[in-house]
Amino acid sequence: MSPDLDVAVVGAGMAGLTTAHELRRAGLDVRVYEQHEHVGGRMRSFRHAGYTIDEGAEQISEQGYRATWELLARLGVPQGDVPRIGKPVGVWRGGRAHPGVADPSAVLTGAGLSPRARFDLARLLAWTGSHRREFDADHPERTPARALTVREFARRYHRDVHDYLLQPVAGSFFGWDTARSAVAPMLSLLLEVGPAVGWRTYRDGMDLLARRLAEGLDVVTASPVHEVVTEEGRVRLRVGDDSVTARSVVLCLPAPVAARLHVNAPADERAFLSACTFTPTLKVSCLLDRPLAPPSGTPLYVLLTPDAEDDVLSAIIVDHAKHPDRAPAGKGLLTLMADARGIPELLTAPERQTADRLVRAATRYVPGLETTAGRHFVHAFTHGLPEATPDALRRRARFMARAARPVEYAGDWVMLRPASEGAVRSGALAASRVLSRLRPSRALGRTRPTSRPTEENVS
């Protein structure tokens, strides 16, 4: 009996939708299964009373997101729908906000760093600059930073470089514990995306690209996949109460979930899957009756609250500064990011209790918040972001060199790149690997691959 599908894609986040888009362009019969009732995964946005609320990812960049920009162009999304944010990132220290984080000018302005730490920041920038060609976000395992953790790497510099730069950036944007995650992926990504002045958002919510991709695909929502089994000549999926077969399956899910679903995964795959651990993320959206923000001489997009200053919050995002359409005219929208250390407890707490705790903590930085906030929404992802541990870094090269197989994987964790660009690139790579094995005779407008794909083929 022939399989039901050419390819089944599990997960309708950016990795899954990109994979399905590329395979559909090649003429394959592709279906995407998504357990939730919406697409986008950690790129999802939802709309409420005139507010556009980003549940997960917050921005992209005009640098370092080549695959994303190519997708946007292919889908006809004008650059005006991806406007520049144009506001700086600040860090809290000594009772006030210091703008300039993620900007080379911090060497001069300080951005919360002491004079000695600014000197060491200059040393850090000089070192990364001299090794710039060796920092490739697609190959973080090859960098001169080796498998050092962020904390280990920071020991060569003044303590402030860790406490008021590397830790708050890692803790807020990546959800990382600096003692557990490798510095190489972080430095590679920061070098590639460039200063905060070049960061952008999607005008109509961070799920814009996901929604546009899904429009041209066969996506079945509210359809959880419970098991994936490789059989002779095909792959069987248990979807709800049904069984579906496919010539190939691409698991576009966090590594721990993919490992659980693929019950007979080869041992050499499981080694990397097991090493790709995730941190949970949690944030609270505050719908305001006026546009409050942390006081600062320069209006901020994000205020980072380092572990050295706060054990409840990691950052405050000023969404109405990110783009004015995120909130109705005269209103405001803030996102309160929870500190990773407290998230496990918050995940099991009632949502109202969680929101109250974060709002109380944020009042220190945004006076009047408690009396101004209206509705609160809590967004939590048990598998929020890949940790990119040294163990995963060491195991990645062997995983990437494996032969193409009936079950493939895609997700930011494959690239050890905790960003939507990592998901897009991994989706393109997974599609290339599937095509190299299936070699569809009805491929539309695409040359058949003649060799096993590598990262270089899609980067």
Task: Tell me what the structure shows.
The protein is of the alpha/beta class and 459 residues long. It folds into two domains: 5-41 and 207-275 and 391-458, FAD/NAD(P)-binding domain (3-Layer(bba) Sandwich); 85-200 and 278-386, 3-Layer(bba) Sandwich (FAD/NAD(P)-binding domain), CATH 3.50.50.60. 35% of the residues lie in helices and 22% in strands. It has 18 helices and 18 strands. It has helices at residues 14-25, 66-74, 106-109, 115-130, 150-154, 159-174, 183-193, 208-215, 255-261, 267-275, 319-322, 343-347, 351-362, 369-372, 390-400, 412-415, 420-438, 455-458; strands spanning 5-10, 30-33, 45-48, 51-54, 60-61, 89-93, 96-101, 199-200, 219-220, 225-231, 234-239, 242-251, 278-288, 302-304, 313-318, 332-338, 373-386, 407-409. Strands 1, 2, 9, 10, 11, 12 and 18 form a seven-stranded mixed beta sheet that branches. Strands 7-6-14-15-16-13-17 form a seven-stranded mixed beta sheet, with helices on both faces. Strands 3-4 form a two-stranded antiparallel sheet. Helix 1 (14-25) packs parallel to helix 8 and helix 10 packs antiparallel against helix 15. The longest helix is centred in the C-terminal third of the chain and has 19 residues, at 420-438. The protein starts with a strand and ends with a helix.
